[in-house]
């Protein structure tokens, strides 16, 4: 659309955020001058967020990387010189070719995550490149997979309550999710429900902004949620509040769950969780009585050794209550599956893969069965900041015999260790199809301006490398527009009426799913209904948590949480930018006054937080938003935010489930805190 004030180009936010806001960019003489939310988008309703409101400053930031770079100083020094694209592509392709020719393609590791989560630029083409090459892959499971495993083990089909339908609920339980900070566009729907009489409950060990805004805050001990669920089920069963018809017709395993819950008297539940008995009873009665009842959860509770069991337990509540009967009732989790089902996806060969959480170990000390990595290719991620056990990750990145390529917009903690940095385009410079894991709207992101400098979209980088390697492949020969059309060509009924042209015209479209559809009650195309699986539940706190009396706990008696705390951060995208920092300008160590007093720590004091994995020096912030025994450091800051040159993941636990799948136990991390004299 052209007006006298410039051209308006429709697009959508690329961040790994459930909201996937639709936006409009105003362009004057080839320069983006204004960015605002699309007023007509039913979910995001014309607003963006405090970080992305300033996104154009990021696009035109003087620190943007705008040419390919080659390292000239020691790894990590950040010393580089510009080189041309031809040299950069030839250099990277030459290394890859040599490894492939010597039968060592799997010593190339593709490490990527959701720096941009549009379908084309997150991976369609670049994943294909590495599939054809036969490189080692990363199980991209640091976020959401553990929660999915827990919930899907109960629900069978992972289709849950459409978050938008929460507006119809009368009891809303925000379970281990900080909606006001991490999913802010859901909040107006929560408020809409509240003005119609809904009561909002937050279940979180921390008094978050969401907990403050809720009507009731239940503050369980970290990782004790299974006990809380067992206590609720106990009351429901005792008081005859379960939905017996639903249980009969739609579930298996109720007798085993009932048996598990029988022992969870209110006293025992209160002792294990710290939640007062009358609160547990109230929650059970409210969830059963004031319907529809919606439970909302994202990933806060999954980052634990018992995270899968917590999500399994949480998913059992709506199943026992028959909450799924009501429009607006059930469990609302990631909405990703609706989009995954709708869009065409390529057949992918199984590649040798390692879990993201084990990056440090795989680079430094590969186990039996791990590939020996000689070439690391990073895109859409900042592993030096986001992967647990950061000191090991950095030790890996420092390896002189490792050749590292990083596709980035800025000189991140990871890019500093690269041998070659390739300049990445930003969202307003590239075409993409944006799905969402927070709602059912697809959006087309149209490029508003040409890529700055010599930056390129990931898709084009994949095409250039493919061509240098002599790869002839159908997907890798698609243009970005053809790739979007390919994704939309599944023929799935969720895409009825959705065409490229319509998306280009309107910017977005809701998947063709009836808003009144009740998952697990009404038929979902291509998804057979299966009974929900209840069964025995056990409260087994992780090994690295407080209260278990382990030897580790003797030395490190405090539990560390590192959640998404800042409105102006999005994972590690903004942690290196002063404009996005809180007014203090630094990360702090939050600690309960009782624990601070016991250590002689006053507000603002310098403290050393440490465990066997690492140590950080930070300023203390005393707060009773935490419970005693719990400390917190915000996630997302860059290495330079501490004197050690490390961020919170220097302390976090990289352990995984025995099958090596799912997310790391980030929040099962024990530390000690001492004043710095
Ligand atoms: N301690 C702790 N650690 C955590 C978490 C936590 O809560 N606590 N949360 C975990 C979770 S849930 C997640 S999802 C991960 C996030 O991990 P990541 O997905 O790695 O994090 P991001 O910071 O979102 O994105 C990484 C980079 O992508 C780049 N990028 C953006 N757009 C583009 C593009 O178009 N092309 C290219 N090539 N690059 C682009 C950005 O500049 C950014 O540096 O972190 C995990 N780590
Ligand atoms: N502003 C902002 N928004 C974001 C992001 C960001 O970095 N910044 N990141 C995006 C990404 S990638 C993701 S995955 C989502 C995550 O969205 P959320 O899951 O909502 O966010 P988290 O901060 O990871 O965790 C939510 C809450 O879980 C709580 N929690 C921790 N342990 C437990 C437990 O044992 N039991 C219970 N009940 N609660 C527990 C934490 O205290 C925290 O308040 O946010 C997205 N949105
Ligand atoms: S980060 Fe999230 S809330 Fe902010 S504009 Fe992007 S999608 Fe919207
Ligand atoms: Mo995430």
Description:
It is a single chain. This protein has 677 residues and is an alpha/beta fold. The protein has three domains: 69-141 and 344-428 and 450-489, Rossmann fold; 145-333, 3-Layer(aba) Sandwich (Dimethylsulfoxide Reductase, domain 2); 552-675, Barwin-like endoglucanases, CATH 2.40.40. Helices cover 29% and strands 18% of the residues. The protein contains 22 helices and 28 strands. The protein has a six-stranded mixed sheet, with helices on one face. The chain has a six-stranded mixed beta barrel with strand order 23-27-24-26-25-28. It has a five-stranded parallel sheet with strand order 11-10-9-13-14, with helices on both faces. Helix 3 runs parallel beside helix 18 (458-468), helix 4 (145-155) runs parallel beside helix 13 and helix 11 crosses helix 12. The longest helix is centred in the first third of the chain and has 17 residues, at 85-101. One ligand MGD binds at residues 16-17, 143, 175-178, 181-182, 203-206, 208, 222-223, 225, 298-301, 304, 561, 563-564, 567, 569-571, 636, 667.
């Amino acid at each position: 659309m052209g007006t006298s004030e410039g051209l308006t180009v429709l697009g959508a936010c690329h961040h790994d955020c459930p909201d996937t806001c639709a936006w409009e960019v105003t362009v004057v003489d080839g320069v983006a001058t204004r960015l605002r939310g699309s007023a007509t988008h039913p979910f995001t309703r014309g607003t963006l967020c405090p970080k992305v409101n300033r996104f154009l400053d990021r696009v035109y930031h003087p620190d943007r990387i705008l040419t390919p770079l080659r390292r000239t100083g020691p790894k990590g020094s950040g010393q580089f010189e510009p080189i041309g694209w031809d040299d950069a592509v030839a250099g990277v392709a030459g290394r890859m070719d040599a490894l492939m020719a010597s039968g060592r393609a799997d010593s190339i590791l593709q490490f990527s995550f959701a720096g941009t989560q549009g379908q084309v630029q997150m991976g369609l083409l670049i994943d294909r490149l590495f599939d054809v090459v036969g490189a080692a892959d990363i199980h991209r499971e640091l976020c959401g997979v553990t929660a999915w495993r827990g919930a899907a083990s109960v629900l069978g089909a992972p289709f849950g309550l459409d978050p938008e339908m929460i507006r119809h609920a009368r009891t809303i339980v925000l379970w281990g999710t900080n909606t006001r900070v991490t999913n802010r566009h859901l909040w107006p729907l929560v408020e809409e429900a509240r003005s119609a009489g809904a009561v909002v409950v937050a279940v979180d060990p921390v008094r978050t902004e969401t907990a403050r805004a809720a009507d009731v805050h239940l503050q369980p001990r970290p990782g004790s949620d299974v006990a809380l669920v067992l206590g609720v089920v106990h009351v429901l069963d005792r008081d005859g509040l379960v939905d017996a018809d639903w249980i009969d017709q739609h579930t298996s395993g109720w007798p085993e769950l009932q048996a598990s819950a029988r022992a969870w008297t209110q006293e025992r539940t209160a002792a294990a969780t710290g939640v007062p008995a009358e609160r547990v009873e109230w929650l059970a009665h409210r969830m059963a009585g004031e319907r529809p009842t919606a439970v909302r959860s994202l990933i806060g509770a999954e980052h634990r050794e018992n995270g899968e069991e917590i999500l399994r337990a949480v998913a059992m509540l709506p199943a026992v209550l028959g909450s799924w009967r009501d429009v607006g009732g059930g469990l609302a989790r990631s909405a990703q599956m609706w989009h995954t089902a709708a869009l065409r996806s390529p057949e992918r060969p199984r590649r040798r893969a390692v879990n993201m959480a084990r990056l440090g170990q795989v680079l430094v000390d590969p186990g039996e069965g791990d590939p020996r990595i000689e070439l690391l290719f990073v895109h859409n991620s900042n592993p030096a900041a986001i992967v647990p056990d950061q000191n090991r990750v950095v030790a890996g990145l420092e390896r002189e015999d490792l050749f590292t390529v990083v596709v980035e917009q800025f000189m991140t903690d990871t890019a500093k260790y690269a041998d070659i940095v390739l300049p990445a385009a930003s969202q307003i410079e590239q075409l993409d199809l944006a799905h969402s894991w927070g709602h059912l709207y697809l959006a087309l992101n149209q490029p508003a301006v040409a890529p700055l400098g010599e930056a390129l979209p990931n898709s084009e980088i994949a095409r250039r490398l493919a061509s240098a390697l002599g790869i002839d492949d159908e997907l890798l020969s698609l243009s970005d527009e053809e790739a979007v059309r390919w994704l939309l060509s599944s023929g799935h009924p969720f895409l009825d009426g959705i065409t490229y042209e319509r998306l280009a015209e309107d910017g977005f479209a809701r998947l063709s799913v009836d808003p009144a559809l009740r998952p697990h009650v009404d038929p979902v195309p291509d998804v057979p209904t299966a009974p929900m699986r209840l069964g025995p539940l056990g409260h087994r706190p992780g090994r690295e948590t407080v209260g278990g009396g382990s030897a580790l706990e003797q030395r490190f008696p405090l539990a560390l949480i590192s959640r998404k705390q800042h409105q102006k951060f999005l994972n590690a995208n903004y942690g290196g930018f002063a404009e996005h920092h809180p007014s203090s300008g630094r990360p702090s160590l939050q600690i309960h006054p009782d624990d601070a007093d016991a250590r002689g720590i006053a507000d603002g004091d310098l403290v050393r937080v440490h465990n066997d994995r690492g140590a950080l020096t930070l300023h203390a912030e005393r707060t009773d938003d935490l419970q005693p025994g719990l400390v917190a450091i915000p996630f997302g800051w860059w290495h330079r935010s501490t004197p050690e040159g490390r961020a919170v993941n220097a302390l976090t636990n990289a352990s995984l489930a025995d099958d090596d799948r799912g997310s790391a136990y980030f929040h099962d991390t024990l530390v000690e805190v001492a004043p710095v004299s």
